[in-house]
Design a protein that fits this description.
disordered C terminus, globular, alpha+beta, four-stranded antiparallel beta sheet, 15 strands
Length: 461
């Protein structure tokens, strides 16, 4: 992949001692041998960088390697203006930059498309759009929209990737290289024990989004049950991935949110936040029972409330609009959560049959980590879909073809094995079971994996 744009004048004036990806041309045969590694998205920024005085912009990717000096600052909105602070100091070992096809490329479902697509910043009347443009040799491929600046400027502007895309790093024989991928889909198996799991793809994506993680022994334990406190943590962490939605969970609870949840418990602040925002409720006896396993039905209730809360923060209509026909389950008609389960089945298939087969939902069975990751991811994506549906009309360039899935062979993605941080959710109703006369069946709680846990039942604070 080659870019015809001229170099970014100021940045390229620096010595090549920065952490560039190896500047060695990569053939398609070589590309097939590369894998990828999930990275902390907050340490990278994609920038539409002006090319001299030409009026053109090209892609620049900056990486914060060390916290000693900030590599860039952000200001404003629509678009967010980027000030590349690394221009003011020797950024060797502190900041990384990728300025051309040697430093970045597109990857889809495990396939490196660097030899087939060029990256280009295309301008419209009101926006700047990052596009993947088929190389002249790539017959039959279509243009792909990757992200936007959400506004125009002659300066450096932040590019926001479309929801299905993320950044990863190229790896070769387990060694992480400097090359950055604009990646989509599953590309590697995140943990050995999920290789044959029915939810492999969704687990990998959930791990990549850092709202659930694995354990210190590099396992995911997909069939382990989740506790009520783990579920709260995971869901809150997931909501942090919704564009335009911001909220802050206090680092410490001001008091005991429930008699059995001490203010110094690792999950206390999150439980208090979820309680205050009607995402969860306790039992009739006033307890929360944080270590109690959460049931599949309870999880549906919490996810519904989290979606409502997130939509309210995004200033959207809080009603959950059906995206597909509701499922007809054989074992929920007389259950307290029947209506919620049916509703969540029509909301992007969040509620689905046990192990995705048959017609039984098994509402009182403990929620396992694999399904918890999948259901939370589906909820997150559905809320994102609702948010994108309200975007101003006419914002897409008329001469840009719609995003088209690239030809690829599904390959599991390579999420990091480190624990993921859960996102605070904003529901309007208690997500954890309705309040039965007696506490609902012990529910497995989705682990919102605070840092990588050493024991499945005790998430790290």
């Amino acid at each position: 992949m080659k870019l015809s744009l001229r170099p970014i004048v100021h940045l390229l004036a620096f010595a090549a001692t920065a952490t560039f990806a190896a500047a060695v041309p990569v053939s398609e045969a070589q590309a097939a041998t590369f894998s990828e590694k999930e990275i902390d998205q907050s340490k990278f920024v994609m920038v539409a960088a002006p090319v001299g005085s030409s009026g053109l912009h090209q892609l620049l990717i900056l990486e914060q390697i060390s916290p000693d000096k900030q590599c860039w600052s952000e200001s404003g909105s629509s678009p967010v203006i980027i000030d590349p602070l690394l221009l003011n100091f020797d950024f060797t070992g502190l900041c990384g930059r990728s300025v051309d096809s040697n430093g970045y490329s597109i990857r889809v479902d495990g396939e490196d498309l660097g030899g087939r697509y060029l990256l280009q910043i295309r301008k419209t009347d009101t926006d700047m759009v990052l596009m993947g443009i088929p190389d002249s040799k790539a017959r039959g491929d279509q243009e792909i929209e990757l992200g936007r600046t959400n506004g125009k400027t002659t300066s450096f502007a932040k590019i926001i990737l479309n929801s299905e895309w993320r950044l990863t790093k190229r790896t070769f024989k387990k060694k992480t290289l400097g090359h950055v991928y604009i990646s989509k889909g599953v590309s590697a198996i995140p943990f050995p024990d999920v290789e044959n799991d029915i939810y492999l793809k969704e687990i990998a994506q959930a791990v990549a989004l850092k709202f659930i993680a694995g354990f210190e022994d590099n396992t995911f334990r997909p069939l382990d049950s989740l506790t009520r406190e783990q579920l709260v943590s995971m869901i809150l962490e997931s909501l942090k991935n919704i564009p335009g939605v911001t909220f802050e969970v206090p680092s410490q609870a001001s008091g005991n949110p429930y008699p059995d949840v001490a203010s110094d418990r690792w999950s206390a602040a999150k439980i208090a936040f979820a309680q205050q925002n009607d995402i969860v409720k306790g039992y009739p006896d006033g307890t929360f029972q944080p270590e109690r396993e959460v049931t599949r039905a309870e999880m549906m209730a919490v996810l519904k409330q989290a979606a409502i809360y997130a939509k309210s923060l995004a200033k959207l209509e809080t009603q959950l609009t059906a995206k597909q026909a509701a499922a007809t389950f054989t074992d929920t008609s007389n259950h307290w959560a029947a209506a919620v389960i049916t509703e969540m089945s029509s909301y992007c298939g969040v509620a689905s049959p046990l192990n995705e087969t048959g017609q039984a939902f098994t509402p009182d069975q403990s929620a396992q980590r694999n399904y918890a990751a999948a259901a939370t991811l589906r909820t997150l994506n559905c809320v994102k879909e609702d948010a994108s549906a309200t975007a101003p009309a006419g914002s897409s360039p008329s001469n840009v073809a719609p995003t088209v899935p690239l030809p690829s062979i599904p390959v599991p993605q390579n999420p990091t094995s480190t624990p993921s941080v859960p996102t605070p959710a904003t529901p309007s109703t208690p997500a954890i079971p309705p309040t039965p006369a007696t506490p609902p069946a012990t529910p497995p709680t989705p682990e919102l994996t605070p840092p990588v846990e050493s024991a499945p039942t005790t998430p790290n604070p």
